Amino acid sequence: MTDYAASHGGPIGDLAAAVANVMADVPYVLQTGRNDHQRYSYASDADLIGALQPAMARHGLALMVTGVEVLEAASIGKT
């Protein structure tokens, strides 16, 4: 149990402790995605899941994707 969980307790403290432990286990995610048009690398969803899932499972966390909504760039920020 981390210091945060020990001092705050309860479900939120336990969750914060588990997230902190995952962050300690996975300090960096390799960026294998590439945007050639704007010339930058990024961590793809596969990179993130591959790096995070084992550490999350070790600390009792799960990742569940529930859906993605794609908006056209022209509609973002307009009401």
Quick gist of this model?
The protein is mostly helical and 79 residues long. Helices cover 46% and strands 8% of the residues. A hairpin with a 4-residue loop joins strand 1 and strand 2.
Report on the structure:
The radius of gyration is 17 Å and the shape is extended. Strands 1-2 form a two-stranded antiparallel sheet. 3% of the residues are buried. β1 and β2 form a beta hairpin. It contains three helices and two strands; from the N terminus they run ααββα. Helix content is 46%, strand content 8%. With 79 residues, the chain is mainly alpha-helical. The longest helix has 16 residues.
Strand content: 5-15%
Mean pLDDT: 85
Low-pLDDT segments, ≥5 res = none
Please summarize the sheet with the most strands: 2 strands, antiparallel
Please give the count of helices. Answer: 3
Structural class: mainly alpha
Report the span from N to C terminus: 46 Å
Helices and strands, in N-to-C order?
Answer: HHEEH
Shape verdict: extended
The percent of residues in helical segments reads: 40-55%
Number of strand elements? 2
Strand order in the sheet with the most strands: 1-2
Radius of gyration: 17 Å
